[in-house]
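for the record, two folds in this file. i put them one after another cuz i was lazy. first one right below, seq on top, structure tokens after. the second one comes after a little note so u can tell where it starts
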Amino acid sequence: MKQLQHMEQTELLWTRWQHDQDKQARDALVVAHLPLVHKVVYKMSSGWHAAINFDDLISMGTLGLIEAIERFDRARGYEFATFATWRIRGAVLDGLRSLDWVPRSLRSKAKEIEAAYATLEHELLRSALDEEVAERLNMPLPEFRQALHELSVSPLVSLDNVLRSDESGNDVLVSDAIIDPNAPLPETSIERSMVQDVLTKVLERLPEKERMVILLHYYEDFSFKDIAEVLGLSGSRVSQLHTKAIYRLRGALSRLKLELRS
């Protein structure tokens, strides 16, 4: 009964906002959906070790929520939570980029590693070994592994990175391209289908532990601490496995984007 009343109240708020532009109704919708902001921000930041104030991330995410409420069109037939999640993630990432807290050298190193994974795994048609990637980068193996460690303890590497923008100007994230195929999608396209195919193939050939980290973290919402307990590994090891897996995925996507442009 209470749930029904809550749904009716929410529906009334949407009507007041979208039909009458009642700002009090909009503000009430923001308050009602703040738990979604906390959920998205917590999931995004669960693997980050850098000193980022959680309240600042919530503020960034709330701006995304407000934008989602103002842009949401119920006539398109998809769930508000799905649409809002995109906006919240995008707002957090935009806010972090504006702070410019990631050293330029680390950004450069990340791009080089991503490119090496993309080229090697396209050539080999399998997951590249650490030794192979290090050799391609003309980097001693210990130095390469140290670089992975530096990247794994920064919030630079994430499936929450923006892959592209759709025709409506909405950000499409890497993680949106590999979500559960049974989940409701706002829209489908040939390009998204191609991205899913590439990611599925890359996921299938990931080393077992890397694949488990990705599946548990992004499909099952496990924190890195939980994954460490399940796999019997240290938290830092899980973080490094996550970093390597993400660069394999991002490398494959980078190559796909080049092919789409050619």
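(here's the note) second protein begins now
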Amino acid sequence: MSCNHCAITELTVELTLKQQNAAELVQIIHDFLSRHDIPVRIENSNIFTNENGATSIYDFSVDHIQIDDIFFRIHDDEWRPLLEFKEVVEAQWIDKVIQKRQIHCHYQPILNADKSVYAYELLARFTDEEGSIIYPNVIFDAARKRGRLYALDRLCRLTAVRHAIHIPKGIKAFINFIPTSIYSPEFCLRSTTALAEHLALATEKLVFEVVETDKVDDVNHLKTILHYYQDRGFNYALDDVGTGHSTINLLADLQPHVMKLDMKFVQGVAHNKQLQVVAEQFLQKANEIGSIPLAEGIETEEDFDWLKQRGY
């Protein structure tokens, strides 16, 4: 079962006005939309309507209202100026990508120090109807603008779980998720864990990886998500460690099973003293909390050997 956050349904757009005569203008807008048979309601002095209604308000405000004083949001996202609503309309294409599941996975190997395969990271990749690649940064940016990040992240997680059944026994599968796209782990992650159970995937096989660790502002919310996974027997990893919130106190608090050193600290580490300092500090943190230290994006034998000798 899905919810309005995860399902591709008609958008509900909430608008608020900052003018002194906001109450009067809200009523004018309400009457304008009603005359055009566009669904609209008023709650707590804010306007709720659909995408067509928000577009009509955009056009109406150009001539009749100071548009700079009107803001909108989708779901409970941050308020944005109505001037940016065109970006939401222009991102309509992402609805079709999600509905038609135009997604597949690539298997990125993760190696042990002896170069045997420890795991595969399942990387989501997308195509348009003509089969052309849609790059992840493009599609996730569109999802954020259109309020579809919940739905896209869920599609990626479920697709990755389905692909995990092709990974040989004894080799783990790393599955990415965006913690800011999950508002309630008990609800949002239920379908993911249920699918893993349905496919008879051993819980120790799956490692759920927090992407954009350094951008997490609500640490307590992240802890709730990680505890949800842990309570069901799954492991979890943090990426982009070494920046943002990645202090030793936070790491000790979250107790990740795997810590991934970002590739910007990895590539060239064999010959760069500054990168070596970061890598050594990272390794010390991982050892202190009993986490597996994983170096991301190795492309040369020199970097591989240097990191291997230190204990990655």
